[in-house]
Amino acid sequence: MNDQLAAVTAICDHYGRDPTRLLDMAREVQAQFGCVPQTAIDGMAAALGMPRVEVESAISFYTFLSIEPRGQIVVRLCDDVIDRLAGVERVAAALEEEAGIGFGQTTPDCQLSLQWTSCIGMSDQAPAALVNDTVVTELTPGRARDMVRALREHGDPQRLVHRLGDGNNAHSLVRAMVMNNIRRPGPVVLSDYKAGEGLRRAVAMSPVEVIRTVKAARLRGRGGAGFPTGLKWEFTRAAAGEQKYVLCNADEGEPGTFKDRVILTEKPELVFEGMAIAGYAIGADKGYVYLRGEYAYLKPFLEDVLSRMRAAGLLGSELCGRSCLSFDIEIRLGAGAYVCGEETALISSLEGRRGDPMTRPPFPAQKGFLGQPSVVNNVETFCCATRIMEMGAPWFSQYGRGDSAGTKLLSISGDCLAPGVYEVPFGISLREVLREAGAEDAGAVQVGGPSGRMVGPQHFDQSISFEELATGGSVMVFSRERDVLEIIRQFMRFFVHESCGYCTPCRVGNTLLLERVERILAGRGEEGDVNYLRSLGDSVRTLSRCGLGQTSPNPILTSLETFPDAYTSRLRPATDGQRPAFDLASALRASEIITGRPSTHFSDQEPRS
Ligand code: SF4
Fold first, then answer.
1. CA of 543 to the centre of ligand 1 (A)
2. Are 346 and 247 in contact (CB under 8 A)?
3. Whether 380 contacts 225, CB under 8 Å
4. CA-wise closest residue to 66 among 345, 336, 350
5. Which of 340, 492, 507 to mutate to test the pocket of ligand 1 (most atoms within 8 A of CB)?
6. Alpha carbon 35 to chain centroid distance?
7. What is the spatial distance between Cα 201 and Cα 391, in angstroms, rounded to a whole number?
8. How far, in Å, CA of 71 to CA of 323, rounded?
9. Ligand 1: which residues within 6 Å by Cβ?
10. Whose CA is nearest to atom 4 of ligand 1?
């Protein structure tokens, strides 16, 4: 016990007993002890001078951290809707059979745990899993069995990588079997560029001129909300604060999104240069990349890129050879929480706390990381900023249409011939995108991930743009054979799982929405259910505190508009005074247990006993 406490204290010392590094410390403790045991929580609380309850509360918030013992190797199988279409349930059954345990369990020898997890950013190569930090893609039941056998034999997840992926996935610091699947490179992000040129041009201007250039280019945030980037930078520059920060949101947790993973693999310099430009513009000398825990395998490679940029004078002190300028970047890992993609939750997490969203205002531009003015932008947005400074605002805004200037990276997955990443000009029609991806005959498309919009063929001529079909990047394709309501059920399960639980409309409302969808799927839907879903969905959307709850009913509300038959065709009228929603069998179950004998009753004119 004392040894454990000593080890925990040493870990805290290594991080300078800085409470904002709590997640890093917890990760290291977990790596040593298989979990973050109660003694370790005591030790961390004492070393950091924090109330114990705060430490425990933070650790219990994140899926990748555990207070309960887990196996030395944790297989986290991705259960998003695309993986389900690709047969993940059969893979799961094979894993259970071979490991001899169910999901949520650990083998008696504490070697292996099986867990489900939300989207790990590999929808174009599903079914996929994380084995500790190693990504394993394109699983089949046979490969899943082989994987368990191999892990039993050598216990090394990295040895599961039997082939290397393309591009930097094969880099010696990555060595992942992940594929980039870049199907359509574009002129802005996935293209050649002159490294350092954008930053050199920026520092030759005044910060105000840099902001003016970004505004002239009409750059809007690529995370989905589309807030004008130049305006955000201007607000942050104008805000009072001793220290300002640039935060890169690399927590693309929206199911079906993986384009930031490809950018970080192939164009990390473009992202980091954009952060340095933002730092110069707002008056910050420090930036953080909040990298989702699922992409931990990229961290050593990204750290190496940062070192090389420092050596080239593109980061660190004497930025671009100017002794008065400095800007540096640190990478911090998340630990598996979708809600941390919301900017205030990301800041909470970056500060080492639970990833709870905060009420706005104040906005991060006024009061962000450590209470100081902070710019939070998406990975792709920083890339665009670099190219704008390199090539000029008119060059950038020649691409796109209307208020949607430039290009957009799409992550296309599901029922299509060519899943992968496409960089398209804003304004392109969804139909053309689907044609390129080999999905012209799609029956339904979820644009913008579960929090986005479900559209049908009647919408395919709409454009990918902030004005029509806005998306942070996720485009999930479903063939005409797929059951729309089953897909909606998966999306709602995701939101119920990922809600942080702070506010009642989101915590309870989403559970009630899911229950009603499941009731309709079970053939017990009633006429009033559609109105119930609409009305409750509107309430959840209006009354929830953060973006998660404000968008979580979208799958239901948009599919009710586009595919009403998916609901109405399943509804049943009341017959002989019996409401279809009333489940006689379950209502009798408690009394059957008490009396110890089965009941004989009639349901749908069929006698049951
Ligand atoms: Fe948490 Fe949901 Fe409320 Fe956001 S809307 S604060 S995720 S409970």
1. 10
2. yes
3. no
4. 336
5. 507
6. 23
7. 10
8. 50
9. 339, 357, 499-503, 506-507, 544-546, 548-549
10. 546
Could you say which residues of the chain have pLDDT below 70? Answer: 1, 602-609
Q: What does the pLDDT read at residue 608?
A: 47
- Cα–Cα distance, 51 to 552 (Å, whole number): 33
Q: Across 318-473, where does the E strand assignment appear?
A: 326-333, 374-378, 400-401, 404-405, 407-414, 420-425, 444-447, 453-455
Q: Which atom of ligand 1 is nearest to the CA of 501?
A: 8
Residue nearest to atom 5 of ligand 1 (CA): 549
Tokens linked to 107: 């083998």
Distance, CA 348 to ligand 1 centroid (Å)? Answer: 14
Report the pLDDT value the prediction gives residue 605, as an integer from 0 to 100. 46
Name 229's Cβ contacts closer than 8 Å, sequence gap at least 6: 214, 219, 220, 221, 377, 381, 384, 385
> Which mutation among 61, 254, 339, 513 tests ligand 1's pocket best, with the greatest number of atoms within 8 A of CB?
339
Ligand 1: residue whose CA is nearest its atom 1: 500
- What pLDDT, on the 0 to 100 scale, is given for residue 343? 93
Whose structure tokens read 């986005």? 452
pTM exceeds 0.85 = yes
Q: What is the DSSP letter of 363?
A: P
CA of 474 to the centre of ligand 1 (A): 22
- Helical H runs in 409-528? 430-436, 484-498, 504-521
Q: 510 with 534: CB under 8 angstroms? A: no
Angle at 220 between CA 182 and CA 381, to 5 degrees: 45
Q: Compute the distance between CA of residue 72 and CA of residue 154 in angstroms, rounded to an integer.
A: 12
Distance 550 CA to ligand 1 centre (A): 8
Residue in the block written with tokens 């498309």: 445
Query: How many A from CA of 507 to the centre of ligand 1?
Result: 7
Contact 63, 337 (CB under 8 A): yes
CA 342 / ligand 1 centre spacing (Å): 10
Element holding 345 (H helix, E strand): helix 343-350
| Residues present in the chain in total | 609
Which ligand 1 atom lies nearest to the CA of residue 499?
Answer: 7
Residue that the structure tokens 């947790």 belong to: 253
Ligand 1 centroid–CA 361 distance in Å is 16
User: For residue 113, what are the contacts with CB-CB under 8 A and spacing of at least 6?
Assistant: 70, 71, 73, 74, 75, 101, 105, 106, 107
CA distance linking residue 186 with residue 399, whole number of Å: 10
pLDDT given for residue 603 in this prediction = 57
